[in-house]
Design brief:
- A hairpin with a 5-residue loop joins strand 2 and strand 3.
- The termini are far apart.
- The protein has about 130 residues and is an alpha+beta fold.
- It is flat.
Length: about 130
């Protein structure tokens, strides 16, 4: 368990106040802009530790970059806008039943899963349409 330093506390507070998924670089910049500079390496280490502890959700986008978001709920999935990062938390028995069935069909146990749906939110789609 990591010691709660000033830098880690600043990052935790920022994550609590940021509703959408953000990259480590974006969080680093947001901290600097708010007058609470934290080293980029510290941001990465803290996010990794928070992810391992289950304190943040991690979403990997198409280019492999990790995005982070503080989530207070138990097991869930996300619907994420690929343009602005807006995220909606989803729960779904259909996904859970499907994962259980697939694991059983292939004789797997202790299976974990994530399901991330990525699309374009209504606001971003409208902005794109108006820009034509």
């Amino acid at each position: 368990m990591q010691r709660m330093t000033r830098q880690r506390a600043a990052l935790a507070e920022l994550l609590d106040a940021t509703p959408d998924f953000r990259s480590a670089q974006q969080l680093h910049q947001m901290l600097a802009e708010s007058g609470r500079p934290v080293g980029l390496a510290t941001v990465y280490r803290t996010l990794q530790a928070m992810a391992e502890a289950g304190d943040v959700d991690v979403l990997r986008i198409e280019d492999g970059e990790a995005l982070y978001r503080r989530c207070a709920h138990g097991h869930h999935h996300h619907l994420v806008c690929r343009e602005c990062g807006t995220a909606v938390e989803l729960t779904g028995d259909v996904v859970e039943r499907w994962a259980t069935r697939i694991a059983q069909e292939h004789d797997f146990v202790e299976v974990e899963h994530t399901a991330e749906l990525v699309g374009t939110c209504r606001d971003c789609a409208a902005r794109r349409y108006r820009g034509r």
